[in-house]
Amino acid sequence: MFERISNGFELARSSWHVLRQEKQLIVFPILSGLGCLLVLISFAIPIAALAPWDNWWDRNAIGMRRPGSMPWRSRFTSATIL
Questions:
Q1: Is the pTM higher than 0.70?
Q2: Sign of CA pseudo-dihedral 52, 77, 33, 13
Q3: Which structural domain range is residue 20 located in?
Q4: pLDDT digit string (tens) for 50-71?
Q5: Residues 40 and 5 occupy one common structural domain
Q6: Angle (deg, nearest 10), helices 72-81 and 27-50
């Protein structure tokens, strides 16, 4: 197990060494990070839009204790799965 961890660190060190030698290659990790950020935002905005922000701290207002009602998170998850 520790051999695999040390191999991972060795690979990371060699990758960092290549990035330091070839400065133009840094564009790919930056673009990848921006892409991941865009995907995160594309999920965060609909979730935030569906949240009942006016009664956030009142559990009864968001349907947590009312019988027969489903919390907004479950509704959103069910809608995205379908």
A1: no
A2: positive
A3: 1-46
A4: 876 666 555 555 555 544 455 5
A5: yes
A6: 120
Q: Same domain, yes or no, for 73 and 39?
A: no
Q: In this structure, is the dihedral angle defined by the CA atoms of residues 39, 41, 44 and 49, taken in order, positive or negative?
A: negative
Own/partner long-range contacts of 5-10 (Cβ < 8 Å, ≥24 apart): none
Helices (H), the chain: 2-21, 27-50, 72-81
Q: Say if residue 34 is in the same domain as residue 70.
A: no
Shared-domain flag, residues 35 and 62: no
Contact 19/26 with Cβ under 8 angstroms? yes
Whole-number Å distance between alpha carbons of 72 and 64: 9
Domain count for the chain: 2
